[in-house]
Amino acid sequence: MPLEHRSYRVLERMAALGLVPLRAISARPITREEARRLVEEAWLSLPRMSPEVARLVRDDLEALRREFAASPAVEARIGVGNSSSLAAHYPLGGVLFSGRLATDSPAGVPRSELYASFRLGSVEMQLGRASVFWGPSLRTGLLLSDAAGTLPLFRLTADLPRARLTKVLAWLERSGGTPAGDVAFFATRLDYDLSPAFRLGFSEAVVTPWGGPLTFYHLLQPIPVLSGVIASYDLHDALGQSRNMSVAVDFDWVPRVGVRLYGVGYIDDAPERIAERRARVGLLGGVSLADPFRNGRTSLRLEYSAVTNGTYSYALGLEHAYRGRSLGHWLGPDGDDVYLELTHRLNPATDLLVSFASSRHGEGRIGQSPPPPEAWFLSGVVEHRQTLGLQLQKRYGPSLEMKYRAELSRVANRGNRSGEEAWEGLLGVEFTYRWPAAAAPSSPASAPGRPLSVDAPATSIQLRSWSAATASRGPLAGPPSSRGYAGLTVRRPLGTFALTFDYDGAEGEAFWSAEVHYPVARFRDGAVSVFAGWGGLTSGTVAASGPRLGAAFDYRLAFGDRTTPLYVSGSLSSPLLRGIWAPREGGAPFYLWTYYAGLGWRAGRFNLEAGYRGAVAERRVGTPELTVMRWDGYYVSLQYGIR
Which of 320, 331, 520, 580 has the fewest CB atoms found within 10 Å of its own CB? Predict the structure, then answer.
């Protein structure tokens, strides 16, 4: 079952004290099982902590260990002034089935969920209807939050030694785009711990029609932001597939024990036009203090966030939204928010939370036309809202919990109507009872992490057959055709790096590239790498080449501690920073993108692999107009490793 919000606060506090990896709270929800593992690891390290830190966390750890003493099979929640729900989970053959039947929130946000999740080695997969929340803030996210409620989605999370890669594919249950089709949401996130005290997160999201030419590309690309900078815009334009793309970079920094600074920068469109007030961007920054008053019982948070008008909106039905609600900041576009929160532990079983929020919201909404510069931020009549909140949460053992919530808000220009003022209030009581299923393990021995064992890659030779269909448009276009290509890949390790040479050819047409690969993350079951090099295309009388940059991944399927011969791999490459290398205004003559995804079987030195392979080229030869060519189809390959 997903972790409760209160437990996130405790984990965040332990992260600020250096007891929990910073990436553990940056992509949510996480399960109670994962939280239990983090708490057990922190508990075992308690004797090695300084006396000051041990005093701060001992009560929290003890309370959470009691809470996680048993896994709840059924949970009932009755709320007055809040959502009520009935949740259950059931493990069956390594797959965990979870569901929650819930009333919608008072604002009409869907909260019911039903999904199945399972783990293959260091990779966890989830399929069903669930929520998703990315970023270091517990209050809101700019690229992804739970403001729109639960979504039908597929999520994949790969845990690496110092990083975590997350992929999300969600269906937004509407049609739109060009060519018109069902609108899908592709999102990729990479969290990387530069040090135990500093984490960087890179996120990328694309709203685009499902089944378009770049569906495989968005499913496979493993390194966010990098892809958006060097490939996605050009590829979508070249293939005529509409898209609404956004990126975010966020961080956590613990400059000293007990102090956590965090921030997010979000770009929806046109960051280079920020001086003209036409960019669509968002910012968030905050500080969390684990023990500001040195009493071991109080924590404090201060946070500010803002989103400009026009953000999350787009034409053709490609809004960054679900059922009209923002997938990012709960305010949507054209607003900002200041938030102050103080949490005090009255005793080991009781927490008191006091909060104050001041928010402003202009007239901008998702789905409107792009705003003029004068309406860039806090446009028209601005609604002002100040909210004071009190919450008392009391736990009666691991099964029973009570929560009392009161809020009072003063609103000026309510609903963006000038001069309309009001007071609004909320009283809520929530009763939660969990029926335990089984005792939890007393140590983190069952944790999914395993000792790393990464061998240096051997020199290898791969032979393949590739059947590609060719389509083109533009003044140099030819008729559709289909060809069979013979391919060769040679890979040679040089210490940490690896050199590769690729060649595919047939009937006077050939693709080639030479590249240097560097693994940015290695783990027992695979690796994620980036590469740079030079590549080109020879087609009839045309021979062109240029610089390339890309990313690749390789993952060997594992069940528990047992590694299987099956593996998956993929790669994508594109021109190197096209806007810098050869801008459109300069009549750039040639660009080439390539990508593939495969499933293989390893037996000793041999790899047998099959999958899907594609390439897209743009050519300007003897004409100012653009010709776009595309090759894609299935391949089969045999690879031999030379010791």
Answer: 580
